[in-house]
Design a protein that fits this description.
The protein has about 220 residues and is mainly α. The protein has helices at about 15-35, 40-50, 50-70, 75-115, 120-220. Helix 3 packs antiparallel against helix 4. The longest helix has about 100 residues, at about 120-220. The protein starts with 12 loop residues before the first helix and ends with a helix.
Length: about 220
């Protein structure tokens, strides 16, 4: 099957194995093209690498769809195909990453050749952009942190209010307890006084009775 950018339809296992073989070849071709010394500009990259990359992507997508449809198959050939596809997928991802780096280098090279900027100035500009991105991320984190602190303070403020209400309630209960204790002491004093009065009356009565008895005995 020729390399095309249209969706690749796979009808059976044999067709899928052929597509897998072609995908492996395309990944190798892309890797060779990326590292070729004849590629000196972004135009070279677009004409040499990009068509191969797009074709490899189309083959990859076709195989991925086919294997998804047969993911429950326990046939040994399907398992071998899936294993080979996974390995090639990782290689394709690596090649795509290397291709992006090479294209960036070519663009930078062309930019330097057309402008008066030095490589050092370009590097400084890149570092400033990266630093600005980091500062932007940190600003977002600081904003989120302030929001979290604000929410925490609000929550703690509610907790402090609840504690204040509880303390006031306890103070009232303590005051009531003190009043009840003082009342109990007063009642205890009154009871003691009554007890002493009763004892005194009893003692006085007994004394009077004894005196009367003694007088009666003497008169007899």
């Amino acid at each position: 099957m020729d390399s095309t950018h249209a969706a690749i339809l796979i009808s059976d296992l044999g067709n899928a194995q052929a597509i897998q073989s072609r995908l492996e070849s395309l990944v190798d071709e892309v890797s060779i093209a990326i590292n070729s010394t004849t590629m000196q500009s972004e135009h070279d990259y677009i004409s040499l690498v990009l068509p191969l990359m797009e074709s490899a992507t189309a083959h990859y997508q076709g195989l991925a769809g086919f294997l998804q449809q047969h993911k429950r198959s326990h046939d040994r050939e399907y398992r071998l195909l899936h294993r080979a596809f996974t390995k090639t997928m990782l290689e394709l991802q690596h090649v795509q990453s290397e291709g992006s780096k090479r294209r960036e280098m070519l663009c930078e090279k062309e930019f330097l050749s057309k402008n008066k900027f030095t490589a050092e100035e370009i590097q400084i500009a890149k570092e400033e952009i990266l630093e600005a991105n980091e500062l932007a991320k940190e600003a977002v984190l600081v904003k989120e942190l302030f929001q979290e602190v604000g929410a925490l303070i609000h929550h703690q403020g509610q907790g402090i209010d609840a504690i204040g209400e509880k303390v006031e309630q306890i103070r009232i209960e303590i005051g009531q307890g003190i009043s009840e204790l003082e009342q109990a002491k007063r009642l205890q004093r009154e009871a003691r006084n009554k007890y002493c009065l009763i004892v005194s009356i009893v003692v006085l009565t007994v004394a009077i009775v004894l005196i009367l008895v003694a007088v009666t005995v003497l008169n007899v």
